[in-house]
Every structure is written in structure tokens, then in C-alpha cells.
Specification:
The protein has one helix and ten strands. The strands form three sheets. It has a four-stranded antiparallel β-sheet with strand order 2-10-4-8, with no helix packed on it. It has one domain: GOLD domain (Jelly Rolls, Sandwich), CATH 2.60.120.680. By secondary structure, the protein is mainly beta.
Length: 146
């Protein structure tokens, strides 16, 4: 049974409350939502939760510096909880990248609460090697809202 289902992104993604974001147009200032370098242990995942308080352009950049390919997924926080519970869940396909060495994307998001998942398990598409070693992945994540 497939544990995931897709949300049609249609070129837009939802966003959550970010302190300091203003609703004024023409400002062009960006707010860093996530800026992290971390190691994802084999058979584990990382979840970054954040909120945006208005419609914004969300920019996502990821790079796997060392280790196996990963799954990068943007979802609503309630759907991320379903993922963490081992259930089927919906995510924003247009803002996610499965079995990836890294990617870059930008899309418009609505006000809301979101989670960005970095998965180094066999729960989605990317599969850690079965070589009886711990295949950890060093990853960089940058998410900004403007």
C-alpha cells in the first residue's frame, strides 16, 4: 500500500506565519524561515515547522553535501504529523523533490502552518543503501519568504 498521496500544487504552495513579514507591497524584503546544515541519520528524517502570516513567495534550496539521495517534502503541519505517524499524507508536489541530491524552487504560498521534511528512510522514494553501514547524509536547507 502506497503511504503517500499528492496535492496538486498548480504553481502555488501554502506558507505560514513569519515574524517580521509585512503585508506591504513593493518592499521586496525576504525573511529566512529555515537556514540549517545538519546530518540526517539513515532510517531517520528531520522536520522543520514554520508559519507565514500572509501570501508570500517561498524559495526553497537544498543540497546533499555527502551521503545518499534524500526526499525533500513540503506539507501542511497536520499532514506532516500523518507522515510522522506512518500514515498516508498529502504534500505539495510542486514544492517537493523525491529521490534528490538537492533542488531549488520558488512558488507563491498562502497564509498557514507548514512543515518541511528531509527524509533519509525508505518511507518515500529515496532508499538508503542496504550495505550494512550507516549511510548518513549531510544536507543544507535554505527556505526564505518574500
Amino acid at each position: 500500500m502506497d503511504r503517500r498521496s499528492y496535492l496538486c500544487a498548480l504553481g502555488t504552495v501554502g506558507a505560514t506565519t513569519i515574524a517580521g513579514c509585512s503585508g506591504e507591497s513593493g518592499g521586496g524584503s525576504s525573511e529566512t524561515v529555515v537556514d540549517d546544515r545538519d546530518t540526517v541519520t539513515e532510517d531517520q528524517y528531520l522536520t522543520y515547522r514554520f508559519g507565514i502570516n500572509r501570501t508570500a513567495d517561498l524559495s526553497i534550496e537544498t543540497t546533499v553535501r555527502d551521503g545518499p539521495r534524500l526526499d525533500f517534502v513540503l506539507a501542511d503541519q497536520s499532514e506532516a504529523q500523518e507522515f510522522e505517524n506512518g500514515n498516508r499524507f498529502r504534500y505539495y508536489e510542486g514544492a517537493s523533490d523525491l529521490d534528490s541530491a538537492g533542488y531549488s524552487t520558488t512558488g507563491t504560498v498562502e497564509e498557514g502552518d507548514y512543515a518541511f521534511i528531509v527524509d533519509n528512510s525508505n518511507m518515500l522514494e529515496a532508499k538508503p543503501p542496504t550495505n550494512f553501514e550507516d549511510d548518513n547524509a549531510r544536507v543544507e536547507i535554505l527556505i526564505e519568504a518574500e
